[in-house]
Specification:
- By secondary structure, the protein is α/β, with parallel strands linked by helices.
- Helices cover 28% and strands 18% of the residues.
- It is built from 7 helices and 10 strands.
- The chain starts with a strand and ends with a helix.
- The structure holds 6-phosphogluconic acid (6PG).
């Protein structure tokens, strides 16, 4: 695990956007398809939306890039609550192929979050390397809530345990009781997230400092789900001075 502390969230965002462009460009030099999964909340709106304005974006072959979501709110497709709505324009400006933007089903597309999660699992399998349940994501960019949740995996929520219940590995799950509104969501599972080569958690501000400190210290996943994220090649925590306050003490 690597922790990088920036002076403030603006410098964190600028550098992370550049880091993402370089990571995608490096992956594109090694593989035909590059798979990136992004979280919602301020990470999506501040980081992904800023990609088009990065000087490095011009050096990325965006036609190779697939964008997936780590989680999504199970509301109508055009609702401002949808995570993809905040980044649709940015992705279009970058010139991604329409069929490479893999939005999670909305409540217009499926009857229940679980049905939507099953449809997303089928979409992931379509783009997986032979026999795998989902593609190996080159980068997963997560946010984290003040309670230590990542994606829509919340403390003491059964969604955290789908991978350790002995059931076949579940790549996505439907949630109907999210403590963070809206209550209906679709989320990748922890196992799906941890199949990524690079997992980055971008969380900043004093409000999240206690959860950041618990996660970095390796707290129990039930209490701090963010503590359980681990990339195959890299686990990177990106925060600012305010967010690092408790970890430093
Ligand atoms: C969601 C997000 C969620 C988010 C965290 C952090 O759909 O709500 O995916 O997991 O990443 O709650 O959100 P902020 O970065 O906006 O604080």
């Amino acid at each position: 695990m690597t922790v990088i502390v920036y002076p403030d969230k603006d410098s964190l965002a600028k550098v992370t956007i550049a880091r993402l462009c370089l990571a995608i460009s490096d992956a594109g030099a090694q593989r035909e398809h590059v798979h990136v999964a992004i979280a919602g909340g301020s990470v999506g709106s501040s980081l992904i939306a800023g990609l088009a304005s990065s000087p490095l974006a011009a050096h990325v072959n965006w036609s190779q890039v697939h964008v997936w979501w780590v989680d999504e709110r199970f509301v109508p497709a055009t609702s401002p609550d949808r995570n993809h709505v905040a980044v649709d324009d940015a992705l279009a400006a970058l010139g991604l192929r329409a069929e490479h933007v893999h939005r999670m089903p909305s409540s217009d597309d499926a009857d229940t979050p679980t049905q939507g999660a099953q449809a997303y699992a089928a979409e992931l399998a379509r783009f997986a390397q032979s026999g795998a349940p989902l593609p190996v994501f080159d980068v997963v960019v997560l946010g984290m809530g003040p309670d230590g949740h990542i994606a829509s995996l919340f403390p003491h929520h059964p969604g955290l345990l789908v991978d350790s219940s002995g059931e076949p590995e579940q790549v996505s799950l439907g949630i109907t009781d999210s403590p963070k509104p809206p209550s209906g969501r679709i989320s990748l599972s922890l196992a799906a997230i941890n199949r990524a080569r690079h997992v980055w958690v971008a969380a900043w501000g004093a409000e999240k400092a206690p959860a950041i400190a618990r996660a970095i210290a390796g707290d129990d996943r039930e209490d701090t789900p963010a503590a359980a994220v681990s990339g195959l090649e890299q686990t990177l925590w990106l925060t600012d001075l305010a967010g690092a306050g408790d970890a430093a003490s």
